[in-house]
Every structure is written in C-alpha cells, then in structure tokens.
Amino acid sequence: MLNPIFISFEGPEGAGKTSVLNTLIAELKMQFGNDLVSTREPGGNPISEAIREILQPEEDNGMDKRTEALLYAAARRQHLVENILPALAKNKLVISDRYVDSSLAYQGGGRDLGVDNIWQVNQFAIDGLLPDLTIYLDVPVELGLARVNENRQGKIDRLDKESLAFHQKVRKTYLKLQSEFSDRIKIVDATQPLDKVIDDTRTLINHILEEKS
Ligand SMILES: Nc1ncnc2c1ncn2[C@@H]1O[C@H](COP(=O)(O)OP(=O)(O)OP(=O)(O)O)[C@@H](O)[C@H]1O
Ligand SMILES: Cc1cn([C@H]2C[C@H](O)[C@@H](COP(=O)(O)O)O2)c(=O)[nH]c1=O
Hints:
The protein has helices spanning about 15-30, 45-55, 65-90, 100-110, 115-125, 140-150, 165-180, 195-210; strands at about 5-10, 35-40, 95, 135-140, 185-190. About 35% of the residues are buried. With about 210 residues, it is an alpha/beta fold.
C-alpha cells in the first residue's frame, strides 16, 4: 500500500452491508494483509464499544435524541483518534462500517435534529476528516426491514424497532447526501441479487485503489 485510503460503508437497515463486507473484507485481506484495517461504528476500541452498548440496548432506554447524537459523535471521535488516524498514518487501507453520514442520516434526518446541526457537532469530532470514498447501499425501507425481520439471526436493536416513517427519513437523507456529495458518496443498488451488489461494490473499491495508487 503506497497511499492511505479511507472507505466508509453506509446504508439503511437491511441494505446488506454486513453481507457485502464479509465477502469483500476477506478478499481484500488476501490482497493487503495487515495493511487492511476493517472497523465499524459505533465501535472499534474499548471506549467506543462501551458507548455502543449504551446506544444499542435491545429495549428503549429513554435516551434523549440530542444525547444520542452526542454519544455517536463521541464514539466517532475516539474511533478516529484510536483507530482510523493511526492506520492512515501508516498508509493503510481503512474500511469502516458506518461513519459520519450515519449520524447525518439517522440523527439529522431520522430524528429530525437537522443535518446542519449534526454536521456542526460532527465537525468538532472528525476535524475535517472525510472518507476518500463512501459506498452507500440503497434499498427501499420496506424491503430492508423485511430482510432484517425475516432473515437476521442476531438481536434486533432499538433503532431496528423505529417507525417506518423514521426509516423513510433516514433513507431520504442518505439519498439527498448522495446527490449533494456525489463525488465522494457512490450509490449501489442493493435491491439486486447479493452477488451483483458485491460486484458493483468491488468495482468501486478497485477504482479508488487505482486512482490512489
Ligand atoms: N442483495 C440481497 N438480496 C437478498 N437478501 C439480502 C441481500 N443482501 C442482504 N440480504 C439478506 O438480508 C439480511 C440482512 O443483511 P445484512 O445483515 O447484510 O444487512 P445490514 O445492512 O448489515 O443490516 P443492518 O445494518 O440492519 O445490520 C441477511 O439475511 C442477508 O442475507
Ligand atoms: C454510526 C451510527 C449508527 N447509527 C445506528 C444505525 C444502526 O441502526 C446502528 C448500527 O448498527 P448496524 O449493524 O451498522 O446497522 O446504529 C446511528 O443512528 N448513528 C450513527 O452515527
């Protein structure tokens, strides 16, 4: 790896991030070995994982929505300082399952806190560090939630249980961000068969790897 590269993955519930990342991280690990750092938000280190536990209990814990936004930003700050920046400083390829666009979409859009307000809070946290590429897996809310409810073996968390209207606002915000920042945020149609979603995503990753080499 000659140059540092930062890629984030985004999407509403059930878009297939986990499935796509499982395949592509395994492939990239073969290619890059220890030069690949695969991480997730909220999480990646003990402090951010502890915040994740507070943010994602199975039952509603009565959390105020601004508190929620601040905790995601705090977890992100620690993730940046402890995981992302040190890896980029060593010219690694960093792939994060979610980053700042999640807060813009979920807290800014879904929770109606406003994208501009969430940008402000997060600018303090990320200090200008945006991904080189953000891959947004897009799926209609009904299909994503149906996938989650029908297929997923893991726990259903607090946000999975939010209303349809909440998830519609999340997706609408993602689509708006994608059209506003189309140089950075690339959309993949996640209604396609999984193999095709993986192919399209791989193409985007190969493109940025070539561009940055
Ligand atoms: N393109 C696809 N076509 C059909 N089923 C899919 C597709 N992508 C994912 N799935 C299925 O949908 C379910 C949810 O997928 P996955 O856990 O990868 O999504 P996710 O985006 O990580 O979800 P969440 O963010 O809510 O955890 C899984 O059972 C997975 O097999
Ligand atoms: C980073 C971040 C995450 N969220 C929400 C979005 C999801 O519901 C969960 C993360 O779980 P997943 O397995 O990656 O789907 O957390 C959020 O609301 N705001 C954020 O900034």
